[in-house]
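Ticket opened by: R.M.
Priority: normal
Category: complex prediction / small molecule

The reporter submitted a protein together with flavin-adenine dinucleotide and asked that the result be attached to this ticket for the collaborator who will pick it up next week. Submitted input follows.
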Amino acid sequence: MNERYDAIIVGVGGMGSATAWQLARRGKKVLGLEQFDIPHASGSSHGINRIIRLAYYEDPRYVPLLKRAYELWRELEAACGEQILHITGSIDASQPDGLVFSGALESCKLHGLTHEVLTSAELTQRFPGYRLPADHLALYQEEGGFLLSERSIIQHVELAIALGAEIHGREEVLDWTSSANGLSVRTTRGVYQTEKLIFTAGAWMGTLVDELGPLLRPERQVLAWLQPLEPELFTPQTFPVFNLTVPEGRYYGFPVYGNPGFKIGRYHHLDETIDPDQPLRLPDAVDEEILRAFVGRYTPAANGPVLALRTCIFTNSPDEHFIIDTLPGDDRVILASPCSGHGYKFCSVVGEIVADLAIEGSTRHDISLFRLDRFRA
Ligand SMILES: Cc1cc2nc3c(=O)[nH]c(=O)nc-3n(C[C@H](O)[C@H](O)[C@H](O)COP(=O)(O)OP(=O)(O)OC[C@H]3O[C@@H](n4cnc5c(N)ncnc54)[C@H](O)[C@@H]3O)c2cc1C
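Result attached by the on-call engineer:
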């Protein structure tokens, strides 16, 4: 095999699948290469769903991207005929001067987002599943919700294939070379030539691209699904998705949907750096206890028997902002590593940005926050 493509995408997970659709929509000859199945449960995008929220406490500069991400999620739904985005409202809560509450409030004020500030007692009155410490404040934003992450990979891939993209599962990229004549990719099944090479390889970005190795830290995460004792308090209609900082750490959670049980996770669960090529340690009683301790105190009516525990991978950058840039010295190679535990909601707009970079060499979106050279001394 020695075919030539406009763009090869390495990694067909959340970001790669969205990128494949955006490039195929613009008439490009695309090849997407995925080492595992499509979809699979060994990367960063499995586990039914991911939170999307506009009141972005991490940095208000994400908000314009989020607005475009919402539009593109709706475009995906229109194109595939399936609901991918579910609106529940979102809660961002912490002590008043904590990042989660104060950052969410700042984003709302700067970008004119509808929001309500609730005391702990008001939160419980409105959404009785919550029992936060009395000194915490909650920001409610009505457009928050969740995305069906595995379904969106499937739909992005189906749409890309329908437009002529080639997508190969179970084909690992072994290495790649760059010369004045072009870019070449060697896989477990063949060798391919391409004009543009796009890396959306999640936890494996650091092994495929030397420049990223020292920067990115793959980390084991654990999700739990617990059977609510009062199920009516944890439906998508009665329980908004949340990000909460409490003395035990920063947690996120979802109403019951798509898998039995109330879904809960803690950011940087045990702070365990991993090698993505080694099997992840199976979840155990210690993992469960970390998550159950939160549920018992702050959402006690959800503290029933465990129904499922699953692992997943964060790929952390040093400042927990994304890396979306071209490779230094070779703008034919595009790097997209939007994770640090909060990237999924951006897949739709990252697909558009990466397609812009591949086709136009630039994008109208402000991606200065994600430049690689911010890490140079
Ligand atoms: C537990 C957990 C909860 C999260 N919660 C949220 C949330 O609520 N909201 C939110 O916005 N974000 C959340 N995130 C973050 C979000 O899920 C990630 O940012 C997103 O999934 C990253 O997508 P990706 O495409 O970079 O990675 P992936 O979807 O993992 O895709 C990368 C793909 O590249 C493939 N690949 C790697 N190397 C090769 C190779 N050599 N050859 C071929 N293929 C290769 C991999 O197999 C993989 O399929 C969460 C993450 C985790 C783990």
